[in-house]
Amino acid sequence: MSDPVEPDEATVRRSDLSGPPPSASPAAPTQAAPTQAAPSPASPTPASPAPPALVEEEATVSRSSLKVRPAQDQPSRRRASGATATGGSRWRSLLGLRQSDDTQEVRRNDLRKDGQPSPSTGGRSTRLRPELPTITLPRVQIPAAITQTGARLVDLTGERIKPLAERSAPVWRPVARALGWVSPLGWTVLVLGLVSWWFAGRYGWTELAMIAAACLVLFLACVALAIGHAKVEIRTDVDPTRVVVGEPATGRIEVRNLSGRGMLPLLVELPVGRSAARFTLPSLGSGKSHEELFVVPTERRGVIQVGPATTVHGDPLGLVRRTMEWTERTELFVHPLTTSLEPLGAGLLRDLEGQVTPDLSMSDLAFHALREYQPGDDRRYIHWRSSAKHDRLLVRQFLDTRRSHLAVVVDTTPEVYTGEDAAVELAISCAASLAVRSILDEQDTTVVVGDQQISRATAPLTLDTFARAAVGPTDVFGSASDGAALAPDASVAILVTGSHRPFIQVQRALAQFEVEVIKVALVIDPDAQVGVRHAGGLTILTVRELGDLRRVLFSGALA
């Protein structure tokens, strides 16, 4: 039912706005005796009662000035007289939504003394729209008994199927291998032929029958071409197996026909790094061989995988492709660029187990020769027997000895270098130059570069480690810890890093080594000035290119 139409100029008392008492009838007349309405709970209690005339004057308000919205525009409206909810209120009551009484009243403060709405409300009621309830759906949980039962079934099934699969492997493995010969294009042609055959047999379409016959005949012919087996012997050689970046490296592949009859042209594939070389061999008679040469690209440092050589049997269209491997995989090491350096001469001086150096000394560890006495020489070193023979004082002269162990740690994080990957390669080249010079000086050498580590090895094996190193984020602290563990007796520790690595991190990384170890930070910075400086107990070498390393070491920075 809709609300009864009432005159626009009908009066509404304040008691009607605040709601009738429970005993009031919904159909009570609007023109009742003027009585003083009880104060609303939301409004403040006046200090003194107002005169009856004033109260009665303020108690009436024009209905037209309230601008009541229709029910369809205001679903939460309830009749001011407290009657049964109609329109939108009826639907709200059916949905079980409740609305607070505080939001259903026209507040007294919103009405001015003249009966007009307050300007702050804009002529509209201050009723608040109720919020819809939040519905939370329960999460579906599978009982633990079901999951445990399923896991047990899978385990039991796997334990029972695995022995059966191993016993039947001679049967299903050749079938699986044969199915792997077919390419996606081949499966498409086969499915198209079978579908066309089925439709042609069901609906009698001659065109589909011709398509089916063509597809199936083509597929069978391609399978027949791939079934053949070639009896050949393939050899692959790469010479040399270790080169420096930019040096040429060539390879050779030789194919010999071992069968008693001639061999049709054969396709041979040889993977070389990320690419693959393909050779189409001519027809070979029985016992004949054919040789092909190929060039291995060596523009970048790394390890290039060559092989295995495979023969490809199949059709020219690529529907069926069968490959057979004939050789093993060969590794070609591309070493980083290095520069020749002067002997480092770094280590712990005057060690009984150390290596003899060309430096003359008055230490009594390694005797070198006799010389004439000079003022200031220690008299303990006078060789009296030789002095008596030559009728002059002779003293013994010695050579310094050093126990040297060089530990090199390379930071391969591209973000800490100016130039990123190219600068990382320069850092690896500098570290490789130091390691090679240390090995040539017959010193122990430990290298930690990225995820690769090696200690006390020959120069080729050490350079192989540099070739295997990958460029990527590196934990400098962890790498230095590994270097200190591999070289507990290190005499010199060098950390090769970039200019963007904070100095505190470099200092903490080198602090993993013992106190008496000479700690050096080699910084790669193409924009800085080449030089040597000391800070925080470290010797900092700055280089811009590989040739600068010889200059900074000539000053004796590692001594």
UniProtKB/TrEMBL annotation:
Residues 41-52 have a biased composition (Pro residues). Residues 370-455 form the DUF58 domain. Keywords: Membrane, Transmembrane, Transmembrane helix. InterPro entries: DUF58. Residues 25-40 have a biased composition (Low complexity). Residues 1-132 are annotated as: Disordered. The chain crosses the membrane at residues 178-199, 205-227. Pfam families: DUF58. Residues 99-115 have a biased composition (Basic and acidic residues). PANTHER family: SLR1927 PROTEIN, SLR1927 PROTEIN-RELATED. This is DUF58 domain-containing protein. The lineage of its organism: Bacteria, Bacillati, Actinomycetota, Actinomycetes, Micrococcales.
